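Fold this sequence, please.
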Amino acid sequence: MKQQLVPISEIQKRLRAFKLSGIVNTLELRIKQAGDDNLSYTEFLSLLLEDEINRRDDNRKNKLYKSAKLPFEKGLEDFDFTFQPSLKKQEILELATCRFIERKSNIVFMGPPGTGKTHLSVALALEALGRGKTVLFTIVWDMINILQQSRADYSYQRKIQAYLKPDLLILDELGYRSMAESTVEDFFEIVSKRYEKGSIIITSNRPIHQWDSVFIDKTLTTAVVDRLMHHCSVIEIKGESYRVKRRQ
């Protein structure tokens, strides 16, 4: 008795039930390819499995990029090193290997507004994401406000964990406002708990010796700087503003 063939639509339905969407999307194409190229069962199955692996890799990468919350996507290839001669390109390229993340080290980009600090931090974030690392980008005061508000609904510890979990945390725009005592404590909480457990990139318009005017409390300033600087690359940019250049 000849066995009745199962319709492709039914096979696809069963594959979806097993969450094999990569195979679902290419099944008909692969069946045609198998017939045209006279593929063996093993070759046919191998192609389907490769499709599923590629689909899952793409989904994971999309989730990583989405959860990173980058303000834009600009890589090192978009950065004009000739406009910022104070930067050592080779030093930045070394950081782009992301070995600093493996070592749980930090980076501080210092310089006037518009000199490319955020661009460089995002470029390094993209390199990290390309290597499968988890990243979270936030403006310092956005993080502080979220943590302050979380005290009201008792979600503080859960919010703290969101900033501790990523392999790389980027804290942008430190120094534009001074912090009250409670906000300094929140900032210190993040820095101290990530110490030697996860990397931080900070961008700041102020040199480190002026951070006591940001954190106000000198004792906490010393504690923050001590933990950040223990394993840290400090990159100072002394050039002009890109934004001013564009306006001119």
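The first strand starts at residue 106 and ends at 110. The two ends are 83 Å apart (CA to CA).
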